[in-house]
Amino acid sequence: MAKLSADLIRVYFAGFDIGTATTSVDVTLAVEPLDPTSLGDGAERAIAGIRNDSVEWAGLFDDSTLAADTAGSLVLGSGGTNNVFAVHIGTNTGSVAFAGTAIMFSVKGGGGVKDIVYQEATWQPDGVLEKGFTQCVKTMMTGSNSSTFLNFGASSTGSGRWYLQVFSYAGGGSTTITLQHGSATVAGSLFGIGSFIVSTRNSFLGSLAGSIRQYTRITKDTTGTVEVAVVLVRS
């Protein structure tokens, strides 16, 4: 079913919300073509090589603390599992999302005199981008709190991953964000399958092993106020 999503796409990277000024974003899932053509072949041949995903973003210049230029000045060229990239297509729990770890390689801005100032940025995934689901839209959580349930429809077996964006934290000390799952939405049937301790803007990738039950949600403990978004990938 087709989706109208032009104004509903959200782009997050390393705890920065750069999607508020987005005009376009291209998420490319690709493999490098290899050429095994040899002498005597009647035509050129090609086979699939290694994955080579990429992301290109464009948007309006935004000088807020969560903007693309701020992200570029702080994490440009840095890698590692804590630089999580996520694109949410839609703003509802269960909407399609793409996520992975990525390295930001360039940010540029410009325009003509009297024109709107535009920005562009590019990322190269440190691995592959995965298609998943929005577990939690960008949400402010205070005290003991939990998100809306994501209903997958059935349990899934095998591995999975969850990608956590932390946009802000206040309240001193730290708070714990936990991913729970269960066969029903009854509190007594829910079990934690992963958690992160957060105290500042950051992003995280957590691996999941074994069967992931039908219903999932995130919770936080009683400490502080945190703003987060989560993508869940089921294998």
Characterization of this structure:
The chain has 235 residues and is mostly beta strands. The protein contains 1 helix and 18 strands. The strands form 3 sheets. Strands 1, 2, 3, 6, 7, 8, 9, 10, 13, 16 and 18 form an 11-stranded antiparallel beta sheet that branches. Strands 11, 12, 14, 15 and 17 form a 5-stranded antiparallel beta sheet that branches. Strands 4-5 form a two-stranded antiparallel sheet. Strand 14 and strand 15 form a beta hairpin. The radius of gyration is 20 Å and the shape is globular. The model has no long low-confidence stretch (mean pLDDT 90).
Task: Write a concise synopsis of the structure shown.
With 235 residues, the chain is mostly beta strands.
Output the keywords.
single chain; 235 residues; mainly beta; Elongation Factor Tu (Ef-tu), domain 3; Jelly Rolls; 2 domains; 11-stranded antiparallel beta sheet; 5-stranded antiparallel beta sheet; 18 strands; 54% strand
Give the topology.
Blueprint (H helix, E strand, L loop, with lengths): L8 E5 L2 E2 L4 E7 L2 E4 L12 E5 L2 E7 L7 H8 L8 E6 L6 E15 L7 E8 L4 E13 L2 E2 L3 E2 L8 E11 L4 E8 L8 E8 L3 E7 L6 E6 L4 E10 L1
Antiparallel strand pairs: 1-2, 1-7, 3-6, 4-5, 6-9, 7-8, 8-9, 8-10, 10-18, 11-17, 12-17, 13-16, 13-18, 14-15, 14-17
Helical content stands at: under 10%
CATH class of the largest domain: Mainly Beta
Low-confidence stretches are: none
CATH topology of the largest domain: Elongation Factor Tu (Ef-tu), domain 3
Q: Say how many strands there are.
A: 18
Q: How would you sum up the global shape?
A: globular
Secondary-structure element string: EEEEEEHEEEEEEEEEEEE
